[in-house]
Amino acid sequence: WFDFIIGINGRNLDNGDPNLFATEIRNCAGATISLGVWSAKGQAIREMYVTVPQSGESLGLALQWCPLNITEDVWHILDVMPNSPADVAGLLPYSDYVIGSPDGNLRGDAGLGGLVEQFMDAPLRLYVYNQEYDVTRVVTITASRSWGGEGALGCVLGYGALHRVPAPLTEPAQGPGETLFEAGAEQTYQPTSMAQAGTPQIGTPEPANFMVPASMPVGAPPSGGAGESAATAPPPAGGPPPGRAKKQRAHHAPVAGLDDYFKEGEQKSREMEGGSSTPKPNAGLPPPPKAGGPPKATSPAPAAEESEASKS
Length: 312
Hints:
Elements: E1 3-8, E2 11-12, H1 18-27, E3 32-39, E4 44-51, E5 75-80, H2 85-89, E6 96-100, H3 111-118, E7 123-130, E8 135-142, E9 155-158, H4 192-196, H5 226-232, H6 256-273, H7 301-311
Antiparallel strand pairs: 1-2, 1-3, 3-4, 5-6, 5-9, 6-7, 7-8
């Protein structure tokens, strides 16, 4: 059930006619043939060499033409409930896979459920493969809805691409990061054609004589101002200095041109407004009050003239 012959002597088998395969075997009588075999355990391909007898004897195997997708109809036993029909039948969680049944065909994701409904409360035989022991056994199970739990089998099933039959544990698993090609130390790449053509070879550059400020010797300070001598003076040998001298900053006089420009603009604006060059003092305005509310408004001059007219 697990092995499929997909090629013979380097040619793929894409024709289901059994006579073509038998003719190829007879033509290679007394010789060794190579068979390409695809295994449903881990979905791996391997090549086998078989010696064909000269006397026309059979190879000792039975073949059936069938597509490879029938290996997708596999149900993985994920969990088994205690005292359930699956537990009584001896199904093991995680390592058991239902791959078929002699009592009916299992096709599609609903194939096992339909067959169980047909054999409800009756014994049903299942082909079960175990990955731990790499064996296939026949399990007889009697489905029932009155066993005291959920479902007719009492187990959790997995179906699909994540539940295919894996490789047996006895085979070494291919780990990630394995080396596909191994090259010896003598296999090095040397561009001889480029060297013969006269291409200039790029060598290792010589170390340049760069000036590193940290490695330069500290000399005498230059004859500059007090600020420069304080900045370039070496630290005392007894330890770190108590404090770093603050560099003196020169105070520049304000720019006289901007002041003259603003004064000239102010003078022109005053001449345009009142014609006088100097501002007048604020005469006639009452001084601000020392305390209390705002000062009372004085009566205007026309009111005094009206009172004199009434007296006359």
